[in-house]
Design goal:
This protein is α/β, with parallel strands linked by helices. Helices cover 35% and strands 21% of the residues. The chain contains 10 helices and 8 strands. Strands 3-2-1-4-5-8-7-6 form an 8-stranded mixed beta sheet, with helices on both faces. Helix 3 runs antiparallel to helix 5 (85-91). The radius of gyration is 17 Å and the shape is globular. The termini are far apart.
């Protein structure tokens, strides 16, 4: 992919975030995904316009959330192809980002990509989010957790909320349909110590449609029994 990917297809407010270095790195990253996609199922997207909007612009949308500038340590859970973590790490080299991916082949791709791109602010952990959440060294470690196409809302909250510091946030991407199935703003979980603060609505084009990022506040430490084992989380999801 060439510079047209950015100059023609990235929305102007997103493009303003990127200097020349970031644009160059972003194109290199696109090349890494395309090459690896020959063997790994990283993306079904084929066109430059879709790649620009649904991968790059979508990954950078959290930059417009109020208070984002104060967030310094981020965990991208279920990172997959490194989205949104790697684009955020490219544009904001001052932020420390951890990519959490349980699939060995995908985490291998992530390690290779950040090495090739020389992204010193990004690291990879190969494990499940709920397992990492029980690690005393990582529990309450992050200012924010971000997830895109990760898991149903209630499951995702239990699997990740213990990673977030008190007063931190979880940013959960969702579609219009998913939002309709989720709790309303203001809904609180006493068990997990979280509250849905708001849904941030956005779109880039008519083809892209309407999307949301649910902003979930971490009010206090979750009860010690969380997160449970994955089988229990899946079988008996919490009522949030």
């Amino acid at each position: 992919m060439n510079i047209k990917l950015i100059e023609e297809y990235i929305p102007s407010h997103i493009k303003e975030l990127m200097d020349d270095r970031a644009k160059e790195k972003m194109l290199e990253f696109a090349g890494e995904i395309i090459e690896a996609n020959k063997e790994l199922n990283l993306t079904a997207i084929k066109t430059e316009k879709d790649f620009a909007e649904k991968h790059i612009a979508d990954s950078l949308q959290p930059a417009f959330i109020k208070g984002f500038e104060k967030i310094k340590v981020i965990a991208d859970t279920g990172s997959g192809a490194g989205l949104p973590g790697i684009p955020l790490g490219i544009v904001f080299p001052d932020k420390k980002i951890t990519l959490i991916e349980s699939n060995n082949k995908k985490s291998g791709f992530l390690n290779k990509a950040i090495k090739n791109l020389n992204l010193l602010n990004i690291t990879v952990i190969t494990d499940r989010a709920e397992v990492i959440s029980r690690d005393p060294l990582l529990n309450d470690e992050y200012d924010a957790v971000i997830m895109r196409a990760f898991a149903p809302f209630a499951m995702a909250m239990e699997m990740t909320c213990c990673l977030v510091k008190e007063k931190g946030i979880i940013m959960y991407y969702c579609s219009e349909k998913q939002k309709q199935e989720m709790p309303v703003s203001g809904k609180k979980s006493e068990e997990l110590g979280i509250k849905i603060k708001e849904f941030v609505k956005y779109s880039f084009s008519e083809d892209f449609g309407t999307r949301y990022i649910a902003i979930v506040e971490k009010l206090w430490k979750s009860k010690k029994k969380y997160p449970r084992q994955y089988a229990n989380i899946k079988k008996n999801s919490l009522k949030i």
